[in-house]
Design goal:
This protein is α/β, with parallel strands linked by helices and 278 residues long. It has 8 helices and 9 strands.
């Protein structure tokens, strides 16, 4: 993995060097608030070159997910290998994978890379629509999570993967430990749905870091999970430690959430470009 010094801008008299390279493997959100679209916007904000392998197409807007169509396995594998074998990657981030076959395929392809992998184990949409087939859950546990440098579940995804219901901050360490036993190196349990001010727990089983925030009264929150995971992945591509990357990601997504805007008749997106509109 290349660190930030190897990607610093060249002088005007030299050819520009390439920035860090980040590959997102996820579904497309036609409304532009989450999924591949959110990932690429976030990666651009962090100065990395975002690339994509689309595994599914969704018809979705501010009101919900109206349809999901998986791409053929050969199309997904072809996208991943086209990027990895020629351009190369400094980090990989996975999002919605939807089916057991696609989870298994992506896990297999991740075995061919030696860079950090951020797994966002997307289970349901912001509107409560299921995005992971029931038979895919065990494949995520057995094949995908052991590939992860960092896994970033919310509380619903913690329950889906471990059976543990997190009711308060006291439950976070137990939930994180159950996830670590499935094989990732680090776990970032997102506690945004807990009462009071939000707190997330990042741990590798030895070190623990609490990431605290301020409760914002915002309706327009679409894309927070994708955005956080992509921000974290982007900072790992620059050479940050997981702790540094998680803090930077938390700060960015908090700002994007505070600037979320109405779009359509339902839940609007966070503002990925809020830094430019201050």
């Amino acid at each position: 993995m290349a660190g930030p010094t190897s990607h610093e801008p060249a002088t005007s008299h030299e050819p520009a060097s390439a920035p860090p390279r980040a590959l997102t493997i996820a579904g497309s959100d036609s409304g532009g608030g989450a999924g591949i679209q959110a990932d690429l916007k976030t990666m651009l904000e962090f100065g990395v070159h975002g690339m994509s392998a689309i595994v599914a197409i969704t018809a979705q807007n501010s009101l919900g997910v109206h349809g999901v169509w998986d791409l053929p396995a050969e199309a997904v594998r072809g996208q991943i290998r086209a990027v990895v074998d020629d351009i190369g990657v400094d980090v990989v981030k996975t999002g919605m994978l939807s089916s057991a076959a696609l989870v298994a395929l992506v896990a297999e392809e991740l075995g061919r890379v030696t860079v950090p992998v951020v797994v966002d184990p997307v289970g349901v949409s912001k509107h409560g629509d299921p995005l992971l087939a029931p038979d895919a859950v065990d494949v995520v546990r057995r094949e995908l999570l052991p590939r992860a440098t960092v896994v970033t579940p919310n509380l619903d995804e913690v329950r889906l993967l471990t059976g543990i219901a997190v009711r308060d901050a006291e439950d976070l360490p137990r939930a994180a430990q159950a996830l670590l036993e499935l094989g990732p190196r680090w776990v970032l349990v997102k506690g945004g749905h807990l009462p009071g001010d939000p707190v997330d727990l990042l741990t590798d089983g030895t070190s623990r870091f609490l990431l605290r925030g301020r409760r914002l009264d915002r309706r327009h929150t679409h894309g927070t999970g994708c955005t956080l995971a992509s921000a974290l992945a982007s900072r790992l591509a620059w050479g940050d430690t997981p702790q540094e990357a998680a803090r930077a990601a938390k700060e960015y997504v908090s700002g994007a959430l505070a600037a979320g805007f109405p779009l359509g008749a339902g839940i609007g997106p966070v503002d990925h470009g809020y830094r430019h509109r201050r």
